[in-house]
Amino acid sequence: MAIATEGETIQVHSYKHNGRIHRVWQETVVLKGTRNIVIGANERTIVTEADGRTWLTREPSICYFHAEYWFNIICMLREDGVYYYINMSSPFVYDNKSLKYIDYDLDVKVFPDMSYMILDEDEYADHKKQMGYPDVIDQILQKNLDTLLSWIKQRRGPFATDFINVWTSRYEFYKQVKRSK
């Protein structure tokens, strides 16, 4: 399996269970790339929706993807603190300079005080029927949602204060390198 290389710019592709593209982030800088983890960063990157509409991300974000967990975490760096948006999703695969995953609709929004909201349960139920998610997907997602909520409560992984500081500094380094070229 290919591994994302630190410092390279990749795309992030989100698919739906039926194999159709859902959303593409045009440019994410790889801050760490291993077989199991990709940590990336982007800001003001173009996002293309399945219907062709595009929009620009507003704030710098640190993105955490894991090859074993069924979620990915977007850490949005705002003036009033770090907000987290978590997509319940398949583990990532890396192929041809693109990180790819299946979005399973359920999302979790975490606020700077670590309070959270589970979002889009209706969308998950609708898509489960429309796309025929097998029951095993429910079981996997529930187990991984429990793991995620434990991480939030324990401030583990991307929810640890030092995580943001370390990876924001690394991102600033790569922005300086890019400017000096």
CATH topology: FomD barrel-like fold
- What is the C-alpha radius of gyration, as a whole number of Å? 16 Å
For CATH, the homologous superfamily is named as FomD-like
List the uncertain runs: none
User: What's the mean pLDDT score?
Assistant: 96
Beta-strand residue fraction: 35-45%
Structure commentary:
The protein has 181 residues and is an alpha+beta fold. Helices cover 28% and strands 42% of the residues. It has a single domain, classed as FomD barrel-like fold (Beta Barrel). It has helices spanning 121-131, 135-154, 161-180; strands spanning 9-15, 21-33, 37-42, 46-49, 54-56, 61-66, 71-78, 81-89, 93-95, 98-110, 116-119. The chain has a 7-stranded mixed beta barrel. A hairpin with a 4-residue loop joins strand 4 (46-49) and strand 5. The two termini are 30 Å apart. The model has no long low-confidence stretch (mean pLDDT 96).
Describe the structure concisely.
The chain has three helices and eleven strands. By secondary structure, the protein is α+β, with helices and mostly antiparallel strands.
Task: Note the main attributes of this structure.
181 residues, alpha+beta, FomD barrel-like fold, 7-stranded mixed beta barrel, 42% strand, Ntdp-like, magnesium
